[in-house]
Design brief:
The chain has 163 residues and is of the alpha+beta class. The strands form two sheets. The protein has a three-stranded antiparallel beta sheet, with no helix packed on it. Strand 1 and strand 2 form a beta hairpin. The longest helix has 14 residues. The chain is globular and about 50 Å long.
Length: 163
């Protein structure tokens, strides 16, 4: 099974055609890069793959699932368990600590004990050289630190897909 399969994808913004009849597939293992000019649709493409935007034509399968056909609650659970997603703005909870931001996905869907969840989150923060910032509020972190916290949060559930 492919990680992501895209068949005849079409996406428009008003009269502007962003994607038309796009067919792609991504293997389970590998690193893929999407390049393009500013405004060309890279972030929109990732939102489509993640099921955040379901206003498109064609079919997108993420790990064999058509997220467009699932309820919003099912899509959220799927993303929490099966995808790590780092958006450009990092989307951290501003008034929560770096540690709490990384723990969020574990608290939502993991069966780990609170002690093991905290240990895993702290290990990831340490890997990204942020252990000393674990208790610091997200809104006081630098841009690079925020991105690394977002990356740790995206990886904490060991997702098969990282966007």
């Amino acid at each position: 099974m492919k990680s992501v399969e895209i068949r005849h994808l079409g996406k428009r913004f008003g009269d502007r055609v962003l994607f038309q009849d796009v067919n792609l597939s991504f293997e389970n293992k590998g690193l893929y890069v999407i390049l393009g000019d500013s405004g060309s649709g890279k972030s929109t493409f990732l939102d489509l793959v993640a099921g955040l935007d379901v206003n498109y034509t064609g079919e997108i399968l993420s790990l064999g699932s058509v997220l467009k056909e699932r309820s919003e609650e099912e899509c959220c659970k799927f993303r929490l368990e099966r995808m790590g997603y780092i958006r450009q703005s990092s989307d951290l909870l501003e008034l929560e600590s770096a540690l709490e931001n990384v723990l969020l996905p574990l608290k939502a869907v993991s069966s780990l004990s609170p002690r093991l969840a905290k240990r895993k989150a702290l290990d990831l923060l340490a890997f990204f050289r942020l252990k000393e910032k674990a208790q610091q509020k997200a809104n006081t972190l630098s841009g690079g630190e925020r991105q690394r916290v977002a990356l740790a949060r995206a990886l904490v559930n060991d997702p098969p897909i990282l966007l």
